[in-house]
Amino acid sequence: MSTQPVTSRVRWLTLAGTIITQFALGSVYTWSLFNGQLSQKLEASVSQVAFSFGLLSLGLAVASSLAGKLQERFGVRNVTIGAGLLLAFGFFLTSHADNLFMLYLSAGVLVGLADGAGYLMTLSNCVKWFPERKGVISACAIGAYGLGSLGFKFICSYLLSVNSLENTFLIWGGIAMTMIIAGALLMKDAPKQQAASGSVNNARDFSLAQAVRQPQYWMLAVMFLTACMSGLYVIGVAKDIGEGLVHLSTQTAASAVTVIAIANLSGRLVLGVLSDRVARIRVITLAQLVSLTGMSILLFTHMSESTFFISVACVAFSFGGTITVYPSLVSDFFGLNNLTKNYGLIYLGFGIGSVLGSLIASLFGGFVVTFSLIMTLLVLSLIMSLTIRLPNAQEQETMQQAQTL
Question: What is the mean pLDDT of residues 179-187?
Fold first, then answer.
């Protein structure tokens, strides 16, 4: 009996489980809904409360970089179940937090680590099951993560309207945990990828130790950090840009949140699908050009309401597309088998980028300096994306020449 139908069924079940898990993990991006009530409860400023989300983003990035080791030892299913349990425990502690330190530990560190442990590992594992359509699968998984933030916005808003703050955290944690564990039970570890014999188009598998010795690895890391810094900073302060630079009303500026959500999701789907038809590094080049367009409008034009929305949409589209295409791009350069570890270290750029923009803005005062730095980094990244080559391309060319002699 052929094992092909069995393998096909397993990988589609793994995809379904990954989408369910990613949807639940994406719920953490509804955090801003809780800032006001937590500020009142803890008698702290909204900015102090909101710092917990910065810690969450950092914890997410750190855990993502370590998840490959955990998967090797315990398997994707067990680590994902553990992530679901830790997420629920984090929300349980958050519901009982009565000071900022407790909030930072529970909602920041624990929830961030839980989210990161599940996010990148399940995504990478799912991509390995579908080596022939990596872009589409990344778009499905990361799109589900983005939709989770939208779906849980309505769920959490409803829960807050009928429950206390404390009970809302408990119910949210319970729903997310149930979805993550249900998704985990559908998943299986992807088989080790075999390089096609005689193929010169596929990158050989690099271990993390081998990958970090390649200049291309650090070029990809700088490009990713730049995309995350520009995307996360502009998304985080879009409302403030609208009010401060464009002098929009609070209500009109707040509409940027909806524009960003649509553009972000569009970037994930459009560039994710495109990356299976065009060289992925060229898709990143396109994303960089779109982001540069948005930043140029912010820096060099006298903005109106329409140009403001166009500019933030460009940055959000580029950011969503970049984080969708990047797992597959890293596998193009360094192989599929060690993707979780190789992409995990690069993914630290997400956590660094989440705090770097805000840090520079607070140190040097305002948007213009930060926008100028982001613009400079985007130009540098564009040059890198146009000049980077596969790390073993020279070695492959030598082999080809030897075969023709």
Answer: 96
